[in-house]
Amino acid sequence: MTVEVERKFVCDAEIIGKLQDIGAQCIGQWQFRDQYFDSPNFILTLKNFWLRCREGLWELKCPAVSGTTPDNDTETLCTRYREITSLPLIQSEVSRIIREHTAEGSESNSSQREQIDKVAENEDTEICSADDTKWLNDLNLVCFAEFKTERCSYTLERETGAVRVDLDQADFGHCVGEIEVLVPEGGDMNAALQRISAIAVELGLSCEKKVKGKMHVYLQRYRPEHYEELLSAQIL
Ligand code: V4E
Predict the structure, then answer these.
(1) On the CB side of 34, how many CA atoms lie within 13 Å of its CA?
(2) 210 ligand 1 Cβ < 6 A
(3) How many whole angstroms from 102 Cα to the centroid of ligand 1?
(4) Residue 77, Cβ neighbours under 10 Å: how many?
């Protein structure tokens, strides 16, 4: 499993020229459609878990425990998420979160708990992989966001390792850049933060406050109730 460490930045008109000036290599340009899922009462996202299907591939982004309180701009501006991409592991983790939540509030009846347990134990894995909607229905998960992104990806080779930069344009009009390093779980997080910070300096990015990602703008615009709950819970 890997931890994605990422800093978002505002894309201005000069960004492609700046990337070329510092030796970035363009590694591709593609388009993909994302669908994000949660329960109707936002159990996953209120715990900062993000369940996504991108062109048929499932991913669960889980908050990575930082261990330290952010004490500088580099840490404050970066996010860290553990990424799970195996569908059976995703199903187990999501069922665990929902089971814990429903146990806390005693919100479910015994047949709902049975359905959740079945998904957790991957009893219907074959059916699940053939039919995405079965496990989503069993866990009462619905799609709350769907959009397409046009992405240009760049790589910057440095002595300390490669750093990736993505320039994204969402179909609802929001553009955002991301400087990203993948760290194997248990790997050197500080080194990753330093590498991101060094590229931000090379690109001349100011130490601005956190930049809004695609999801932030999407929810603000199209899902105001969900957005307000996430703001109140300080997830966004
Ligand atoms: C983690 C998260 C979300 C899931 C999507 O994350 P993001 O990396 O922004 O999207 P994308 O399309 O670049 O995915 P990739 O291709 O890198 O896998 S949606 C919201 N969050 C939480 C979050 C947050 N609280 N603050 C910031 C600055 N970003 C994300």
Answers:
(1) 22
(2) yes
(3) 26
(4) 23
- Please report the DSSP string for 43-84 in residue order: TTGGGT-EEEEETTEEEEEEEPP-SS---SHHHHHEEEEEEE
With CA atoms as reference, report the closest residue to 175 among 31, 12, 58, 19.
12
Residue 89 has pLDDT above 70, yes or no: yes
pLDDT of residue 130: 47
Ligand 1 contact via 8 beta carbon (within 6 Å): yes
Question: Residue written as tokens 């499932």?
Answer: 58
pTM of the model as a whole = 0.89
Give the DSSP letter of residue 234: T
Residue range 16-32, pLDDT digits in tens: 999 999 999 999 999 99
